[in-house]
Specification:
Pfam families: TPR_16, TPR_6. By secondary structure, this protein is mostly helical. The protein has a domain of 57 residues. The chain contains 14 helices and no strands. Helix 9 runs parallel beside helix 11, helix 10 packs antiparallel against helix 11 and helix 11 runs parallel beside helix 12. The N and C termini lie far apart (129 Å).
Length: 287
Amino acid sequence: MRHPILMTACLAGAVLVSGCADKDGDATVERAFQDVNVVDETNLNDVMLTVADPNEAVDYFARSASKSPERIDFQRGLAVSLVRAKRYTEAAAAFGKLTRMPEATADDRVDYADALLRSGNWAQAEQELDAIPPTHETFNRYRLEAMLADSNKEWTKADSFYEIAVGLTTRPAGVMNNWGYSKLTRGDYQAAERLFGEAIRQDDTLFTAKNNMVLARGAQRNYSLPVIAMDQSERAQLLHTMALSAIKQGDVETGKSLLRDAIDTHPQHFEAAVRSLRALEANVSNG
């Protein structure tokens, strides 16, 4: 008679243990899913900040930040995505909000200054950079410091900041181009040409540096194209730039010859060069 009672007790105990095991199992599975979600979310954030369409990234981070406003990674992602989307005024506002969060870093404040510069607020950008400890020495910080010194015509400081920035990056082509343009605006054409050449050696796809180099040579009345990598379309565009530089210097016949070369060189119809040549020839015939 005791066996049924014993069996019932065992079954009850088994059910109880099974119930506890189910609860523990559910909790374990839930924690596992949370861990997976965090990993997936981190990967998605990275994708949105690199390869996603900038405006889609803005929408994603704006939604995420509205749901979890305390998450600084969402606020940072939103600000960075706005910069990628070239929505600089909104980006500056987003970085301003970000820098008021307790976890904000000195890099966030440098990025805030960058966004302010891009939105045209140079005075506030300078104030933000001045508030960052001088011990925070990064490429982006010195790049911005150089640009601000340039705008204030503090040439010695600008050169110093550009030189430091170049030493802090493995891809200095862009900052070398900026430094060269600074020299070009000061009338130091030889130094500008040298810096543009160095920028091109670092990145031979940087057409802006190639065009600036031609401007520097033209300012010295050197109307031959530099020996640099260029495709046929780039060659035509650089000849056009050289032609306009020659005309500006008063060397009109040289300019006309360069325009004809540009038109003949371009693989397609080069409307801008054709218009420039027609305008020159019309002025000559009317004169």
